[in-house]
Design a protein that fits this description.
Layout lengths: L8 H51 L16 E2 L16 E9 L8 E12 L2 E12 L2
Antiparallel strand pairs: 1-2, 2-3, 3-4
Amino acid sequence: MRNNRGASLAELMIALGVLAVGILGVFQVFADGVRGEAQADRVTSAIMYDRQLITLIRTRNLAFGGIASDASTDRRALNEAPFANDLPADSGFTRNIQLQQFEPSGYPSSLRRIIVTVYWSDRGTERKVELQTVQRQI
């Protein structure tokens, strides 16, 4: 009868293979987490810029003369006039602002729909966040 006190070379190689697969899986999950955190950071920044632009438009009453509506394909720098001193110049984000007369149920009103879209590039793909609000002429 043979006395087996240790593991054979084949058993060690299989154990190391299983361990390597497990470690690679952990690294992949870590890399996905870092990538997801970076994407969440960009979305959060885009929402912050969207909200800041809407606040500036509303508080300065720009929806009723002070800013022109962009064409739907326009991408302007965040800090382009009239926001030159309000937003950063090199953030990696661009914006589009649409201003529309808002007439609920076809009734004339003194309301404007403000649509602000902030764009950025994520690994070669254009991403966007769009916020809308309505403002009454003051």
